[in-house]
Structure formats: structure tokens, C-alpha cells
């Protein structure tokens, strides 16, 4: 692949998920940092309906446009000819994507962070920032990631999972089983979403039933976790490929009962404490566990690993996010800035890691010797 100096970076944002708006906020921050670092940027948007926008100003259109504009038509239903729409990306001819050296998929949630876009870019032979297909898919599915991390011996809170179909067929049996296995409060989550979308805290049976109904609106697989008494929410950022490094930890003190979507993005009363006030031994343990989790899922580039620190000092690994947010409220860039790596240098390092990972994949033999 012919490379420019510096590389031309395609920034992909939006997408078909409940985290579409978060992706737009992250993309704005990422593009500003790439520009400050001296990179040429090519914005690429995906509407909530899955249409790819590659001409004009996709970020402005997705941010300011009405629902009609977002799906490729004006409010009267006419096709908008000012923007190229790609129902299937990476086409040839006039509809092909602009030439780039790599892509930064600033996509959160399904159809972006779950290995789907990563697989598309792999098939196209385009370098990209972040984890590969398997790592992205495993990291997106909270149940699968818990199973893998648990098999590796990483400490986690007690949990159970089930399918939406099972809930529809035998809700009473599922509630009874959850109450037998876990204690209240319980956290109910869609298995394949982030940004706390669809997550509820249940203290009673009635709240548990309502929480499961809500989670089932977002996913076919549901995760229920036992709440940890007097838990502090601690986050650690990880950066690297085969030799990942962990940042200093930060603490989230939510304005609501837990760090839900509103507390993250809509209410500025939540506190992000960087660095977290922890004992040296606790910091070291969390950094080691974060790197171990990164390696267990074979991540690349970046990840944020979230912990729960119980009142008795026990550390639980809560989850790993393979494409953490880059909004004003996001911990990932804050933690690296506090660790000595400002945002422009951070995105530059991510570009380097993506190209490094691509070059490593190029060593793979495609056909056997005859």
C-alpha cells in the first residue's frame, strides 16, 4: 500500500446502533485531535439506517439533519443528490470510498464495534485502528467476554445470562432462578450495547421484571449481574498491540444511582476523578488485570477496562470496551493525558499501532506452498 506522509485517515462515525449520537460526539473530538496532530482527515458517516455518507460534511449532516436527512432523503422523501449514499460500502467506480491510508472506526455498539465493520475492512485490505474481528465481537458481547475472562481466572461479580426467547417463554422461572442465584440489587444489561443504553438497576422483583423487559427491547441476549456492596467505579485505559501498557486509574462518581446514559452524557454533575485515590497496591493490581484482560481477548490498539472496587477492598473486573468513547465525558483520553500522553499524541500513537498491526498481518501466508 502506498502511504502518504503523514497518512490520510478516514474517520468513520455514526452507525446503526443506540450509541449513534455518542459516536458523533466522539468523532468530533477525534477529528480535532488528528487535525492538530497534522493528519489529513476524510470524514465518513453512517446513518442510523446504514447508509454511508462520504461527500460534503457527513458529521454536520448527521448532527444537524432531521430524520429524513439522516436516511438519505429530504423531509419530503426525495433523494438528496448532494451527498453520495452507499447502501453497500467500498464499491467501485464513482461510488467508491475516498482513498485513505487507514480508517479510524469511531463506532460504538452493534454494526461498528462488534467486528462487523472490522471484517469488512479486513476483506478490503484496509488498515484500521482498534481490535480485530474476534476481539471486537467478543468484547462487544458482555456474556462471551465474561466467559472468556472468567476462564482466564480474572475476578468478576456473580452473573447469569439468558435469551429473550427464554424470557418470553418462561419469565417466572427465570426470575425465580435469578433470585436464587444472585442477591439484590441486580444490574440488568443488554449483552451487546455500551454507553449504559438499556441498563437498569433492580432492587425488587417488580423492578427486575421491568428491567428485563427494557433490556429485551435492545438485544436477544440479557446479562444480569449481582450488585457489589459500596462499589467504587474505577477505569483503566490500555494502549498497544502485543506489548500493551496501562494508564493510571480514574474514578467515576455518578450523579445518578449508577453511571447510566444520562449521567454519562446529559448531566454534568457526574465527577471524573483523575487520578483515582487508591493505594499503590490497588493501582498496580488493576493495571496488571487490565493488561491481562486486553491480552486474553487479543485486543489491539486501545481498550478501556472497567473495575468495581468493593467496600471490603475486593477488586472485580466489570467489562472491557474495545472502542471507548472520546467525548468530553470520556475517561479513555483523560487517563492517557494524565499519564503523560495528550490527545494529539494519543491519536498519533493509535495510527502508528494500526499500521504496525496491518504490517504484521501482511506477513501471514495466504496460500500454501506447492
The helix/strand series, from N terminus to C terminus, equals EHEEHHEEHHHEHHEEHEEEEHEHEEHH
Number of domains: 3
Q: What gross morphology would you assign?
A: globular
**Unreliable segments of 5+ consecutive residues:** 66-87, 263-267
Main sheet summary:
6 strands, antiparallel
Secondary structure layout plus pairing:
Blueprint: E1 8-14, H1 20-36, E2 40-46, E3 52-53, H2 58-64, H3 67-70, E4 85-86, E5 102-106, H4 116-124, H5 133-140, H6 142-151, E6 159-163, H7 164-169, H8 171-181, E7 186-190, E8 200-202, H9 205-216, E9 221-226, E10 232-240, E11 245-246, E12 250-253, H10 261-266, E13 271-273, H11 280-296, E14 301-309, E15 315-321, H12 331-338, H13 343-361
Parallel strand pairs: 1-2, 1-5
Antiparallel strand pairs: 2-3, 3-4, 6-9, 7-8, 7-9, 10-11, 10-12, 10-14, 12-13, 14-15
Describe the structure.
This protein has 370 residues and is an alpha+beta fold. The protein folds into three domains: 8-128, Rossmann fold (3-Layer(aba) Sandwich); 140-154 and 229-339, D-amino Acid Aminotransferase, Chain A, domain 1; 159-226, Dna Ligase, domain 1, CATH 3.30.1490.20. Helix content is 36%, strand content 21%. The strands form three sheets. Strands 10, 11, 12, 13, 14 and 15 form a six-stranded antiparallel sheet that branches. Strand 2 (40-46) and strand 3 (52-53) form a beta hairpin. Helix 1 (20-36) crosses helix 13. The longest helix has 19 residues, at 343-361. Mean pLDDT is 87; it is low at 66-87 and 263-267.
Amino acid at each position: 500500500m502506498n502511504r502518504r506522509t503523514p497518512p490520510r485517515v478516514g474517520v468513520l462515525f455514526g452507525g446503526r446502533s443506540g450509541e449513534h449520537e455518542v459516536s458523533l460526539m466522539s468523532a468530533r473530538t477525534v477529528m480535532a485531535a488528528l487535525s492538530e496532530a497534522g493528519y489529513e482527515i476524510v470524514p465518513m458517516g453512517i446513518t442510523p439506517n446504514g447508509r454511508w455518507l462520504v461527500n460534503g460534511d457527513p458529521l454536520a449532516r448527521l448532527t444537524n439533519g432531521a430524520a429524513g436527512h439522516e436516511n438519505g432523503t429530504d423531509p419530503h422523501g426525495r433523494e438528496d443528490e448532494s451527498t453520495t449514499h452507499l447502501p453497500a460500502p467500498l464499491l467501485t467506480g464513482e461510488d467508491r470510498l475516498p482513498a485513505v491510508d487507514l480508517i479510524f472506526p469511531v463506532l460504538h455498539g452493534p454494526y461498528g464495534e462488534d467486528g462487523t465493520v472490522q471484517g469488512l475492512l479486513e476483506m478490503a485490505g484496509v488498515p484500521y485502528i482498534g481490535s480485530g474481528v474476534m476481539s471486537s465481537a467478543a468484547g462487544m458481547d458482555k456474556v462471551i467476554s465474561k466467559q472468556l475472562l472468567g476462564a482466564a481466572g480474572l475476578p468478576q461479580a456473580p452473573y447469569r445470562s439468558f435469551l429473550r426467547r427464554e424470557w418470553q417463554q418462561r419469565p417466572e422461572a427465570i426470575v425465580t432462578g435469578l433470585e436464587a442465584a444472585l442477591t439484590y440489587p441486580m444490574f440488568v444489561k443488554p449483552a451487546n450495547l455500551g454507553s449504559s443504553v438499556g441498563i437498569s438497576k433492580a432492587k425488587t422483583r417488580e423492578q427486575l421484571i421491568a428491567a428485563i423487559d427494557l433490556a429485551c427491547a435492545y438485544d436477544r441476549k440479557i446479562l444480569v449481574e449481582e450488585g457489589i456492596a459500596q462499589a467504587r467505579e474505577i477505569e483503566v485505559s490500555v494502549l498497544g498491540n502485543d506489548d500493551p501498557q496501562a494508564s493510571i486509574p480514574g474514578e467515576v462518581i455518578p450523579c445518578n444511582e449508577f453511571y447510566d446514559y444520562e449521567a454519562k452524557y446529559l448531566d454534568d454533575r457526574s465527577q471524573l476523578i483523575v487520578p483515582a485515590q487508591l493505594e499503590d497496591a490497588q493501582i498496580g493490581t488493576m493495571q496488571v488485570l487490565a493488561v491481562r484482560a486486553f491480552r486474553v481477548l487479543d485486543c489491539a490498539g486501545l481498550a478501556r477496562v472497567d473495575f468495581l472496587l468493593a467496600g471490603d477492598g475486593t477488586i472485580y473486573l466489570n467489562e472491557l470496551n474495545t472502542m471507548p468513547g472520546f467525548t468530553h465525558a470520556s475517561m479513555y483520553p483523560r487517563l492517557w493525558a494524565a499519564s503523560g500522553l495528550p490527545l494529539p499524541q494519543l491519536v498519533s500513537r493509535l495510527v502508528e499501532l494500526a499500521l504496525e498491526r496491518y504490517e504484521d498481518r501482511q506477513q501471514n501466508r495466504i496460500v500454501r506452498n506447492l
